[in-house]
Amino acid sequence: MKNEGIEGTERFLSPDRGRGLRAVRHFSVGELVFACPAYSYVLTVNERGAHCENCFSRRDDLFKCGKCKQAYYCNVDCQRGDWPMHKLECVAMCGYGENWCPSETVRLVARIIMKQRVTTERTPSERVLLLREFESLDGVASCFIILLNPSVRCLCLFVSFLLFFSVLPCFTCFFCLQVNCNGFTIEDEELSHLGSAVFPDVALMNHSCSPNVIVTYKGTVAEVRAVKEINPGEEIFNSYIDLLYPTEDRKERLLDSYFFTCQCTECTTKSKDKEKMEIRKLSSPPEPEEIKSMVRYAKNVIEEFRRAKHYKNILFSCELLEMCELSQEKMGAIFADTNVYMLHMMYQAMGVCLYMQDWDGAMSYGEKIIQPYSVHYPAYSLNVASMYLKLGRLYLGLEKKTQGVKALKKALAIMEVAHGEDHHYVAEVKREIEDQK
């Protein structure tokens, strides 16, 4: 396949950012800029049985792979479509059973390696950026890191010893930063994790904390839509991170994960930082050092919660909920309820309540979160849409019809722009609203 490019855009050298993508025509809000099928992808283990391994469709009538009994498909066509990649895991799952547990990143890397071995031409995922153009660490340092990484052993569970060492340079290239820096998390309409994928053309877009496009997913295809008016000659910017947090936090996350210091307009002006870091109105305002100390505490709690995020049982979830409540109580001595660190812990508490089927508790947290989210996030934010969606469904489940329909309509208004009016998630929400009439 020759390099056909993406209509309406062009690859160019972006000042201070390296290669990037810019518009050569006008794009309106909600307009599809381009779509990109995944070069390679993998369904997360937690969604097996609920989604098809090949097309990621959410269905109740999936059938199992006849060999490993662990992969599920819509039909024979989907099974055949996934077999070139699934056969790696199928053999390992049959042979190792429950002892087979490589990370999602390792599973994705293995699929990329195998696809590169059988694919010589440019793919539909690489119209403007080839996979091999992804940046990585160089030379001996890369090889040393990869050989020391314990995840290599997991890869050996389903790639033969001979094959592994015959593709070591390729694996080195990907494992050292490639998938972590250029990979994408595929999520559903409530931002639940479905799987991981690589979309080379989507990865070409540079980051901004005030992006003009948003990436959503239709199965295993990434769709890039404008969330601001984009004029000819303007660079197309995506966001690599959650935009809830203040400037210094965002910069730290980008530096740690993507190895660059963001200099976008939002990071330069810090226009939203005051609202995001709102302090409780007290008779004696806290000293700057007290605020810094509380921010450090909040970050430590967030990291601790991240490590313990897998709810193993109801008892463990109760401990997580208590942890959330205690952290809110401590931070609340200084931070207002609209402070982003307070909101973070409320969001985690809401997730625990949903897991424990404490619908009233989840609803209570959602009601506290939604308005500040609408202020802190950009327009047409998926985070805001998913919160309205969760709240709407909670209201309907608790027989609060009027509130439920109102919340679903607010979610729908965002989703029609972010996902497109023809997306099946949009159709599902419309049916939910229609069912209440």
Automatic annotation (TrEMBL):
One of its GO terms (biological process) is methylation. Pfam families: SET (PF00856), zf-MYND (PF01753). It catalyses: L-lysyl-[protein] + S-adenosyl-L-methionine = N(6)-methyl-L-lysyl-[protein] + S-adenosyl-L-homocysteine + H(+); L-lysyl(4)-[histone H3] + 3 S-adenosyl-L-methionine = N(6),N(6),N(6)-trimethyl-L-lysyl(4)-[histone H3] + 3 S-adenosyl-L-homocysteine + 3 H(+). One of its GO terms (molecular function) is zinc ion binding. The keyword Chaperone does not apply. Its EC number is 2.1.1.354. Residues 52-90 form the MYND-type domain. PANTHER family: HISTONE-LYSINE N-METHYLTRANSFERASE SMYD, N-LYSINE METHYLTRANSFERASE SMYD2. Protein-lysine N-methyltransferase that methylates both histones and non-histone proteins, including p53/TP53 and RB1. Specifically trimethylates histone H3 'Lys-4' (H3K4me3) in vivo. The activity requires interaction with HSP90alpha. Shows even higher methyltransferase activity on p53/TP53. Monomethylates 'Lys-370' of p53/TP53, leading to decreased DNA-binding activity and subsequent transcriptional regulation activity of p53/TP53. Monomethylates RB1 at 'Lys-860'. This is [histone H3]-lysine(4) N-trimethyltransferase. It comes from Amphiprion ocellaris (Clown anemonefish).
